[in-house]
Design a protein that fits this description.
Length: 528
């Protein structure tokens, strides 16, 4: 039975609404500038299927009022993280990001904040974060503890420990003056964890104290402050590197099919795609591109420029919230021409292929450029690592869907060739690889790539022919990135910006790395 909206009083204020099922479990959380207008719209006719299913499960609606729409945005995001309603957008990688905690003990400690599966933090104290690049952030905890003289002992000892003698702690457990200074260290640490600007202010303050101590000929004190500044500088460098690595600029495209939104993003650093991700969410209620972006940046580093295929609703509000959170001005833009638009179009092409259940754009390009019978979902790339007559090995990398499939990599000891004959060695490992696959009745690749020129390609083709195989096979010469194909005098040159060439280069670089590593291992073992 559908919930009767006329049985409750719906306020007209801004705020959030919590929709609950018959067991009082929250199944959806939304926000609105005018709660009455928004909530009543769910109960109108001609809703999409997903929204109809949501409405069918509503047994009660609770409201929380806010002063303005901005507060509603923030509260909605926090409540979604806390309750994780099944009809809301939830980013699956939310748990991967690090939070730090300053405990509430007599002399507080700095710890990693642990969380339960429902997102609740374990332990008492103040929590800071999220910090991206969790593993590198963990490495800086030791630097933070030393920089701010924070104790690491689980239980407070009666006498100073090794950390005191190493200069990492002032010993508040034993010395009264250190105990009196300890709260100041903790307060300074809190300021640094709150943001970048506070780090600079604290560093400047320390510099002033160092100069003052030096002027008063308190050289030991000046040295301690100097050491703290060095540690803090090291931490700040890591934070700056992390910022540059993740926050140059970010691109998003969105595609909708059958009431499901697919969002794909590219993270760009110095004009190069460093990372990408795919996200899915149902178009239910207020689930929107705008909501997605805010949820996404609650656990990711915020860049100065966010480029999108379509501008989100509440663009200005979203920019304001992200700017406040980041500490600098954030712009959300939708480019309509130039290189930035080309990147957006590439993302949309990716999304279209997902909808069509096709391959990656680079693989589709390879099919067209090399005139292959199918999209080369499985690519195997071969190389010879040859260091003198005694150290020659073969290697193979395997790519599936345009990405490395490392469990499929193979290495070969050369058995039938003596001397430095790369052509014959390529012929040997190709023959051994595909003879074995035929014997095992295993899946054959869609494309074979040889690291080298025409000579290496012809050697591979002869081995394939001897096995009765007609698999697509090309070679990639590193000097000019030329691609040689069978029965064609002229090489193929793919523009360096094309994703098709990048896939081939990645496969070639991987097999080279794998082969060199194997060769060095053999040399070391022989020397031993």
């Amino acid at each position: 039975m559908t919930f009767d909206i006329t049985t409750i009083t719906v306020p007209t204020n801004p705020g959030i609404y919590l929709m609950k099922d018959s067991s009082e479990k929250i199944i959806y959380i939304g926000k609105a500038k005018n709660l009455k207008k928004r909530v009543k719209s769910y109960f109108l006719k001609n809703q999409n299927y997903k929204t109809q299913k949501l409405v069918e499960n509503i047994s009660d609606i609770e409201f929380i009022l806010t002063d303005n729409e901005s507060e509603a945005f923030l509260l909605e995001s926090n409540m979604i993280k806390k309750h994780r309603p099944r009809f809301n957008i939830e980013l699956k990688d939310q748990q991967r990001y690090t939070y730090l905690r300053i405990s509430d003990e007599k002399h507080p400690r700095l710890l990693v904040a642990r969380r339960t599966r429902d997102g609740k933090f374990l332990g008492k104290g103040k929590t800071f974060g999220p910090f991206t690049q969790g593993s590198s952030k963990l490495l800086t905890i030791g630097t933070l503890r030393k920089a701010f003289q924070i104790r690491i002992c689980k239980t407070l000892p009666k006498r100073v420990c090794l950390e005191y003698h190493l200069g990492n702690c002032e010993g508040p457990c034993e010395f009264k003056d250190a105990e009196e200074r300890y709260p100041k260290h903790v307060a300074a640490l809190e300021q640094v964890l709150k943001g970048k600007n506070q780090s600079k202010i604290f560093a400047k303050k320390l510099q002033e104290e160092m100069h003052q101590a030096a002027n008063l000929q308190q050289f030991e004190r000046a040295k301690d402050i100097r050491d703290t500044l060095i540690r803090l500088g090291s931490l700040q460098t890591k934070q700056n590197m992390e910022y540059v690595k993740n926050s140059d600029e970010e691109y998003f495209g969105i595609g909708i099919k059958e009431q499901i939104a697919i969002v794909m993003n590219f993270r760009m650093v110095n004009g190069v795609i460093r990372d990408s991700g795919k996200f899915y969410f149902d178009l239910v209620g207020d689930n929107s591109f705008s909501n997605f972006l805010y949820q996404y940046y609650s656990t990711h580093k915020i860049p100065k420029f966010i480029f999108v295929s379509v501008l989100p609703d509440n663009q200005k509000l979203l920019e304001s919230l992200l700017s406040e959170q980041a500490g600098f001005t954030v712009k959300i833009l939708s480019p309509y021409k130039g290189k930035k638009r080309d990147i957006i179009n590439l993302i949309l092409k990716n999304i279209e292929l997902i909808h069509l259940k096709g391959g990656e754009p680079g693989l589709v390009e390879l099919k067209e450029i090399l005139n292959l019978p199918v999209i080369p979902n499985i690519i195997e790339c071969f190389d010879i690592s040859n260091h003198g007559t005694d150290f020659a090995v073969g290697a193979m990398s395997r790519f599936v869907g345009g990405a490395p499939h490392k469990s499929g990599y193979r290495k070969f000891r050369i058995k039938t060739v003596s001397g430095q004959n790369d052509f014959a060695m390529i012929g040997e490992i190709i023959k051994r690889r595909y003879y074995r696959l035929l014997e095992e009745n295993s899946v054959l690749p869609d494309l074979i790539v040889i690291d080298g020129g025409k000579g290496q390609l012809n050697a591979a083709l002869k081995s394939l022919e001897s096995l009765g195989l007609k698999l697509p096979c090309v070679s990639l010469a590193k000097e000019n990135e030329e691609i040689f194909v069978p029965k064609n005098k002229n090489s193929i040159l793919i523009p360096k910006s094309k994703p098709s060439l990048k896939i081939l280069q990645h496969a070639r670089d991987e097999v080279h790395r794998f082969g060199v590593t194997y060769n060095r291992t053999i040399q070391k073992n022989q020397i031993k």
